[in-house]
Amino acid sequence: MKVLIVGQGGREHALAWKIAQSARVTKVYCAPGNAGTAIDAENVDIGVSDTDRLVKFAQSESIDLTVVGPEVPLVNGLVDAFRKARLRVFGPDKTAAQLEGSKVFAKKIMKLANVPTAESHDFSDAEEAIRYVEERNEQPLVIKADGLAAGKGVAVCDTRDEALAAIRTAMVDRAFGTAGSTIVIEEKLVGQEVSILALVDGRTIVPLETSQDHKAAWDGDKGPNTGGMGAYSPAPFATPELMDEVISKILIPTVHTLRKQNIEFRGVLYAGLMLTSQGPKVLEFNVRFGDPEAQPVLMRLKSDLFDVLYAAADGKLHEMPDLEWDPRPTVCVVMASDGYPGKYEKGHAIRGLDAAAQLSDTKVFHAGTAKSGDDVVTDGGRVLGVTAIGDDLSVAKRKAYEAVKCIRWDGAWCRKDISDKARQA
């Protein structure tokens, strides 16, 4: 079987690495890929938004399964084009992908499904949004750009002035382009964050093991939001009782409500949750594997990922045996470029990758990397996802940071506290 992975980040490297382990898979391509996927798969120089060339490549190479990694091609309808060409593809179509592509759409579905989430209002006029904040009692608010903003379109605001500044950034300064032309203003939820991912084939829902992302740039959850500075799995807050509640009150109602709207969801349904004193509430929905959550979760997966995704694409998840998991925990530490999540330079040579690769129970997943001659160089804000597995969380964390210490480039940095939140459980 031949597989095509669409994307070029750490998530896609993890998918390529895991799928290549399948006994049924003979070839894995990654379009466009990065310096890491070039080792575990074969890169194809086609961008994620080049729909016609991706379809033609899948046809010419007789690809048996295409897995779409990032959200942008999903929201833009890549899956629709593949299905129209009668190509097997894993991922939601353009309509279903609105769950991530539009915060307003997601809130509408949650309301119809009676899914617990923060109270919110949406605005397409900046003055109305500003007036709404100015006229209400001061309280912590979250300002979200409606569209895709690479994980940076959310501002958590503790004061009125911060909320007003966030509105102007999105709607007046257009920092996120058209994604911020409409915004959602919602109450700030307080608690621990947990990521729950499930494979969905339209009817059957198969939850994956839990994880916890670290969105803030700096230690102690300080600083600006990023695409994710690290993650670990499992998340101790996600007890079996909580998982039952999430499945019955969030995942099943969401998928059922979409079906009632004539929207069949096939792909990964990712619920970003806040565990509040009133129970779990949805912060956001994503429609693909998380990045960096995919790295620690897939490292723990013992089942054949190809078999599962192939079945999901065909609507046959109900025929699959239960997923098998390594009980040992995993930790993924993201190494980033100086300046991220703001402006950063590319092209710095990365040293120490070979030394890190020699460490046991560790895998360095490439995110923003490229080849330049014989060198692997930085090519993004989040550059590497250094991931390790250990007998307990402290061992996994130690192994991950040992590998981090092997790797250097000008301006490299990372958070030092990935997985420490687990101690609060």
UniProtKB/TrEMBL annotation:
- GO biological processes: 'de novo' IMP biosynthetic process; purine nucleobase biosynthetic process
Q: Which reaction is recorded as catalysed by this protein? A: 5-phospho-beta-D-ribosylamine + glycine + ATP = N(1)-(5-phospho-beta-D-ribosyl)glycinamide + ADP + phosphate + H(+)
Which cofactors does it use? Answer: Mn(2+); Mg(2+)
Keywords attached to this entry:
ATP-binding, Ligase, Manganese, Metal-binding, Nucleotide-binding, Purine biosynthesis
Per the database record, which ranges form the ATP-grasp domain?
107-314
Q: What is its EC number?
A: 6.3.4.13
Among SUPFAM superfamilies, the record links this protein to: Glutathione synthetase ATP-binding domain-like, PreATP-grasp domain, Rudiment single hybrid motif
Q: Note whether Metal-binding occurs among the keywords.
A: yes
**Alphabetized GO MF terms:** ATP binding; metal ion binding; phosphoribosylamine-glycine ligase activity
Respond yes or no to whether keyword Transcription regulation is given for this record. Answer: no
Cross-referenced SMART domains, in alphabetical order? GARS_A, GARS_C
Quote the pathway field: Purine metabolism; IMP biosynthesis via de novo pathway; N(1)-(5-phospho-D-ribosyl)glycinamide from 5-phospho-alpha-D-ribose 1-diphosphate: step 2/2
Similarity comment text for this entry = Belongs to the GARS family.
Q: Which NCBIfam families match?
A: purD
HAMAP family, per this entry?
GARS
Put simply, this protein is called Phosphoribosylamine--glycine ligase
